[in-house]
Amino acid sequence: MFAKLVQRLFKRKASTVEDVVPQAQVNAPSGIPMEPVPSLPESATAEELCELKDGMTYEEVRAQLSKLYRRHNRAASSFNPELREQAERMLDAIVEMRTTTLISIVKSRRRSVS
Prior knowledge:
Elements: H1 2-10, H2 17-20, H3 23-27, H4 46-49, H5 58-75, H6 81-113
Helix pairs in contact: 5-6
């Protein structure tokens, strides 16, 4: 049905959906670029893996961790064992950073307000 609709809209013959929309665009989640995951160094800390920098605000840290979680949570169910292993490692690092970094920022905010 979709292929017929596309044929009518673009007035060209399409045998499959892949002829009209590349497969990478069909499977890509909206707003998250699909890029190959670089190999993660074994000695990298959770902060380095999450690419957090000193002086980042609470909102910046939360946004960065949310972006990484969306990307790697999807990869955690991949059929590729290497990709799945890297995703699990990144998810562990994200959880660690959420529990340590975000909590410490909130505590420091409370101290400065008091």
